Amino acid sequence: MADMPGWDRAVATAEKILGKDADIPKPKANIDKAVANEDKQWGDFVKARESLEEEVLGLVDASQQVAAAIEQFRDVISQDAFGLDLKKKDDLKKIQEARKIMLALLDKHIATVRNNAKDERELNKHLANIGSYRQGTL
């Protein structure tokens, strides 16, 4: 069993103790093949985790872009007169009321998207922590 270091030495020592008539069983499963499969699966897992980290960072970036776009639009709404005359008292009241409704909604969406980005950064920390896990080797 080449992939189980020390096994051949352990068997030789055990045979010395047990004597030449001892019959030490051989494994029924192919341990070398199973270890090779485990190594392959571990490599696949690492690649998948790294890919997921990249996707999460892309998601964080996208969320920040959404927040920036909404904030930019919020700036436009906060200054726009919507085709009315700011100098007219009645129009000014309508503009302020309309702005209040739209800005409240935009502020809500900005907060949601910022919170999403915060959660996504936290998720990325967990993925990075998974990356510090090291599997023991035989």
Number of strands: 0
Q: What's the main sheet like?
A: none
Given helix and strand content, the structural type is mainly alpha
Mean pLDDT: 92
How are the elements arranged and paired?
Layout: H1 7-18, H2 31-79, H3 89-131
Helix pairs in contact: 2-3
Summarize the structure in words.
With 138 residues, the chain is an all-alpha fold. It is rod-shaped, with a radius of gyration of 32 Å. Helix 2 packs antiparallel against helix 3. The chain is 75% helix and 0% strand.
What are its keywords?
mainly alpha, 3 helices, single chain, 138 residues, rod-shaped, 0% strand
Concise structural overview:
With 138 residues, this protein is mostly helical.
